[in-house]
Amino acid sequence: MGWLKFDISEVPNEAVGATATLRLYCDAPPRIEPEFVDKYAPVVAAYHCSSDSWAEESITWSNQPSYSPSILDTQRVYYNDVYHRQPDDWWFSWDVSAVTQTLNINDDLVTIVVKISSNSEYLPFYSKENGWSHPQLVMQWTDIPEFPSFLVLPIFMTAALLAVIICKRKYIENGRG
Fold first, then answer.
1. Could you tell me how far CA 65 lies from the centroid of its own chain?
2. What was the pLDDT predicted at 47?
């Protein structure tokens, strides 16, 4: 089981249509022929954990936070010659967009748990210390809502009218009217 914590503070609070893709690099995924993929390829599931209070240096099996039992996405981790996977293309991706639905406005961190759920005990995924091939959470969003443009003219006209009224009152108060 792997625990991954990502800083998402760059995502605007007003972001609309946010998606998230978890990307992990596997150093040596098993080579499996196409006809045996369903039977032998390891399946790795991604889960969301609402807690970000754990620390990498101190998390253990005994003190790990609970995480959602609902799987966000699964991926079979393998390569074969048919798909021409080479070591520079051993990136695997999970759609974890559901985590964006549960974020609070003040959330700057998100935790994703990955767990090998079949056919393997170990897969060598690279860690954050591994330069260009560290785990990645790719966040995208389609829009940030703007101030409604149809309100600009009425607000401007109201402000101009108030300015005229205030100026006229001051003019009258100063005995000029």
1. 19
2. 94
